[in-house]
């Protein structure tokens, strides 16, 4: 009964309902317009496969395996890249204002700062929010017990390229040469590329919150089980864009 409920939910809720709708249209058109029926059947298959966790893991895997967590991370400063702002009304904790991606990174950054005692530079502006992401992340880190004099915020950046440019400016001013770059594992290849192009002297990549890998379960093959495919495709497009950009314009 448990599995039946999961299967029904997967095909009633989006994107599973689109799979059913396209399959029904393909069946309806099978004698009237064979080419259109085949197109709808193909789209139904692509929506199903493209939104499974199995397919998502195939996309994320190469990005997340690019760097491993350093056994003994050493540097002058930890640079934490924010990954979204939740906003909303008045909250009990600053953590409620952070999108899940940012929260995952902040929690690991807290432990890393505690273990190393290094200053923590938080980079993230307010491209689509009422307050800078770095401000909310710093507020939560203070709640966790990080001393205020160990926190530095960069609140102007709107994307990863600006994260790199504005963070490097702060690092230059403070004499930080070697940075521990902390962000989600899937986001790290593009981040390392952009920080390197910005002129960062030494980078120690620190991947967190891997999403791919691990055992597979029945529901991983159902439509809608892999919501992170968009994240992976965004990273591949970003890497392609910036590699072309730096090949022709730098």
Describe the structure.
It is a single chain. The chain is an alpha/beta fold. It has two domains: 51 residues; 140 residues, HUPs (Rossmann fold, 3-Layer(aba) Sandwich), CATH 3.40.50. It is elongated, with a radius of gyration of 22 Å. The longest helix is centred in the C-terminal third of the chain and has 21 residues. Strand 4, helix 8 and strand 5 form a beta-alpha-beta unit. It has a five-stranded parallel sheet with strand order 3-2-1-4-5, with helices on both faces. The protein contains nine helices and five strands.
Short description:
With 250 residues, the protein is an alpha/beta fold. The chain has helices at 2-12, 16-28, 34-50, 53-64, 100-116, 133-144, 160-174, 188-198, 229-249, and strands spanning 77-81, 120-123, 151-154, 178-184, 202-208. It has two domains: 1-51; 71-210, Rossmann fold (3-Layer(aba) Sandwich), CATH 3.40.50.620.
Class per helix and strand makeup: alpha/beta
Categorize the overall geometry: elongated
- What is the tally of helical segments? 9
β-strand number: 5
Biggest sheet strand line-up:
3-2-1-4-5
Main β sheet profile: 5 strands, parallel
By CATH reckoning, the class of the largest domain would read: Alpha Beta
CATH homologous superfamily annotation of the largest domain? HUPs
Instruction: Report the oligomer.
Output: single chain
The helical percent reads: 40-55%
Spans where pLDDT lies below 50 across 5 or more residues = none
Strand content: 5-15%
Q: What is the ordering of alpha helices and beta strands?
A: HHHHEHEHEHEHEH
State the domain count: 2
Rounded to the nearest angstrom, the distance between the terminal CA atoms is: 60 Å
